[in-house]
Amino acid sequence: MIENKAINRNTYDQVMLPIYAPANFIPVRGQGSRLWDQQGKEYVDFAGGIAVLALGHCHPVLVNTLKQQSEKLWHISNIFTNEPALTLAQKLIDATFAQKVFFANSGAEANEAAFKLARRYAITRHHPTKTRIIAFHQAFHGRTFFTVSVGGQPKYAEGFGPNPADIVHVPFNDLDAVRAVIDDRTCAVVLEPIQGEGGVTPATMEFLHGVRELCDKHQALLIFDEVQSGVGRTGKLYAYQHYGVQPDILTTAKALGGGFPISAMLTTDAIAAAMETGAHGTTYGGNPLACTVGCVALDIINTPEVLMGVEKRHDMVIQALEKIDQKYGIFQEFRGKGLLIGAVLKAEYQGKAKEILQQAAEQGLILLSAGDSILRFTPSLIISEDEITEGMMRLDMAISRWLNK
Ligand SMILES: Cc1ncc(COP(=O)(O)O)c(C=O)c1O
Q: Which residues bind pyridoxal 5'-phosphate (predicted)?
């Protein structure tokens, strides 16, 4: 029995499918933007569970909500509806362009639903051959077979046999490239308003407006994957709200449950009407536990205090990074919006992001990368000024040690 053995990082290699390369320490406790590992070492957390923990670890209001709901109703299945799911759906509708909601459990599942809906809508409302999906190089949409195929990093989709068909990829932020491939057989254009995993690259204003116009011209749906950029991460509830460009379908996950797994696909009445009973589904999607926590997380995040605080924290992070760069000169660019920030390493440090992450962890700082050459910052939206300052001091130390190694 595994309970009788000491659990350590080696246990991972013995018992887990070898698809991840987790850090060599095991976190056991978190509070706000601090984490502790098995040895009691403390870390400042600038990763937030990869843009999930918008309110930090174990936010007391979320913990209480979860406890209370856990004594009432955990799961009921889609044979019934439930009050928390209906309440959360209404909140999302009130806060966005949407009129209909589908709940799932992960970003990939929300995207899978979005792509199926787009195909179904185009086939039933237009023509059976209107099935082409236009997507972008470096895009990331999840790990189901459809979502890795729409994603723009071929390595994730290779080696699993024949891929879903009729998907084309073009360079991000290149309107001419979209113009060259879009036609009346296009069913949807899919994009992240700010590419996250692919390098923290915001769409330009001109690009998003141009893509919207091209979609309208060719009666193609515009799908925004806001799994990473959504739920306050950029300082608005959804990133599309900075651009004034409305999608037809939007997917949201990660921060939606503040760390409890839940995702949603949002769309309009007219598009939702392409689906009928039995056309799609999930056992756990919209369960009362996740939706109750989602309601409370959304209520806290979708307030001027939290959203305006994101901008302030963005400025603090950028200023601290600029100071570090004045000392060490290792960055060529800072980009992103709100608390989705990428620090791009200079040409001579290409491929070195992982080494800096390891050194940061040694100094007690949890950071992310986006690709091999970009440090990525996705802390809690309510991280304190002291924690930002402390984390940046640790980053400074890590870079200094790393450069002198
Ligand atoms: C933009 C985007 N879409 C989809 C996903 C997949 O979400 P999940 O891992 O919850 O399936 C991610 C995860 O990083 C993401 O960043």
A: 107-108, 140, 225-228, 283
Ligand 1 atom at shortest distance from the alpha carbon of 139: 1
Tokens of 137: 């190089």
Task: Determine whether the shortest distance from the Cβ of 353 to ligand 1 is under 6 A.
Answer: no
228: annotated binding-site residue?
A: yes
Q: Residue 1's pLDDT is what? A: 42
* Index of the ligand 1 atom closest to the CA of residue 111: 4
The question of whether 91 is a catalytic residue gets the answer no
Checking phi first, is residue 371 left (phi over 0); if not, alpha (psi -120 to 50) or beta?
A: left
pLDDT in tens, 185-235: 999 999 999 999 999 999 999 999 999 999 999 999 999 999 999 999 999
Of 227, 255, 310, give the one whose Cα is nearest residue 52: 255
Q: Is 228 in the pocket of ligand 1 (CB under 6 A)?
A: yes
pLDDT (average), residues 122-149: 98
254-265 confidence digits (pLDDT tens): 999 999 999 999
* 140 tagged catalytic: yes
- What structural domains does the chain harbor? 9-59+304-404 (3.90.1150.10), 73-302 (3.40.640.10)
- Chain-centre distance for alpha carbon 212: 22
In contact, 377 and 365? CB cutoff 8 Å: no
Can you give the pTM of this predicted structure? 0.98
Active site residue 225: yes
pLDDT at position 2 over 90 = no
SS3 at position 270: helix
